[in-house]
């Protein structure tokens, strides 16, 4: 597939891993209206892309994302309500609504500065790997506003109440190692190894049953706000839907390989995926 080209976004591919790159390095990937429009278009263009097995979101140059562009997103649209509205919509759509629902596993690869509104798309990805050297911050307080959009909300989602309050009211920065300690990212590695480690994780995930990965990530996101009773009911329905949607019959393959063939241990690794049709149904 020939990828679309964009003014402020780049798409790169390595095997089944698709890198979606915020590409305004000279502005530390601050999010202009154009970047929001390009990103919404780019995410849409990858939605049904069969080559994409894992989507990695990252930034070009020394930043992941320096937040909303103060000049172009805020000041530049003050007297242009139409563009302001369109930019706000696109901003919410790609950074949260579309990324959180993306059908494949998503990984935020935080290569550098991640400030303000940039935290939203980092949190929207299913997993996040940071460079040790990356610098995070809810800097809004430093210029007299509060963390808006959904940033205050995602801070309390990602970290404890105490940490969310601390980093929001002080605007203190934290590096990749601290981001791991407070639960904002899964792990951090030296910047020099970041891409390699991200590809290693993505490659490991590509060996798993794609329908099970998709349904599992949707389940984990959804049950957070449910009661235990509601979650049980939802998970029963979700499990039934997974069996209906899983074209490779993973449950049957896994059961047979463990119980009959004794060829793997589900506690210790993945079942051997075989093309659909080669499976004998239970
Ligand atoms: N909005 C607009 N322009 C920005 C932004 C931003 N959020 N961040 C960086 N830039 C621009 C700078 O103005 C500069 O442009 P110029 O070359 O035309 O002067 C260019 O990007 C490079 O920025 P520097 O500050 O020179 O780069 P440096 O590497 O020294 O610092 C840093 C990077 C720490 C990210 C700094 O630019 C910064 O503090 N940016 C603002 C971060 C922030 O507070 N983001 C939250 C915004 S609010 C929100 O998202 C809701």
Explained architecture:
- It is a single chain.
- With 282 residues, this protein is α/β, with parallel strands linked by helices.
- It has two domains: 9-206, 2-enoyl-CoA Hydratase, Chain A, domain 1, CATH 3.90.226.10; 208-282.
- It has helices at residues 33-47, 70-74, 81-101, 118-124, 151-158, 161-170, 176-181, 194-206, 210-223, 228-245, 250-260, and strands at 9-14, 17-22, 54-59, 63-65, 105-110, 113-115, 127-131, 135-137, 174-175, 187-189.
- It has a six-stranded mixed beta sheet with strand order 1-2-3-5-7-10, sandwiched between helices.
- Strand 2, helix 1 (33-47) and strand 3 (54-59) form a beta-alpha-beta unit.
- Helix 5 (151-158) crosses helix 6.
- It starts with 8 loop residues before the first strand and ends in a 22-residue tail after the last helix.
- Residues 277-282 have low confidence and may be disordered.
- Residues 27-28, 30, 66-71, 113, 115-117, 139-140 line the site of acetyl coenzyme *A.
Task: Give me a quick take on this structure.
The protein is α/β, with parallel strands linked by helices.
Index terms:
single chain, 282 residues, alpha/beta, 2-enoyl-CoA Hydratase, Chain A, domain 1, 2 domains, 6-stranded mixed β-sheet, 4-stranded mixed β-sheet, disordered C terminus, binds acetyl coenzyme *A
């Amino acid at each position: 597939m020939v990828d679309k080209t964009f003014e402020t976004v780049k798409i790169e591919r390595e095997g089944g891993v698709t890198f979606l790159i915020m590409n305004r390095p000279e502005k530390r990937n601050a999010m202009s209206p154009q970047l929001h429009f390009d990103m919404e278009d780019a995410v849409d263009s990858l939605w049904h892309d069969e080559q994409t097995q894992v989507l990695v979101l990252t930034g070009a140059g020394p930043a992941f994302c320096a937040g909303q562009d103060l000049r172009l997103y805020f000041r530049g649209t003050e007297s242009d309500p139409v563009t302001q509205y369109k930019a706000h919509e696109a901003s919410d759509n790609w950074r949260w609504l579309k990324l959180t629902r993306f059908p494949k596993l998503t990984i935020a690869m935080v290569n550098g500065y991640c400030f303000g509104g940039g935290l939203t798309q980092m949190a929207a990805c299913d997993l996040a790997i940071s460079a040790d050297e990356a610098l995070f911050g809810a800097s809004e307080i430093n210029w007299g506003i509060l963390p808006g959009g959904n940033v205050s909300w995602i801070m309390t989602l990602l970290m404890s109440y105490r940490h969310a309050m601390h980093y929001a009211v002080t605007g203190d920065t934290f590096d990749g190692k601290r981001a791991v300690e407070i639960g904002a990212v899964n792990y951090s590695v030296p910047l020099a190894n970041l891409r390699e480690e991200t590809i290693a994780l993505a490659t490991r995930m590509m060996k798993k049953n794609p329908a099970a990965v998709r349904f599992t990530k949707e389940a984990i996101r959804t049950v957070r706000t449910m009661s235990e009773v509601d979650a049980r009911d939802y998970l029963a329905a979700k499990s039934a839907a997974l069996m209906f949607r899983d074209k490779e019959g993973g449950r049957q393959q896994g059961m047979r390989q463990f119980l009959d063939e004794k060829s793997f241990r589900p506690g210790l690794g993945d079942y051997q995926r075989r093309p659909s049709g080669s499976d004998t149904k239970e």
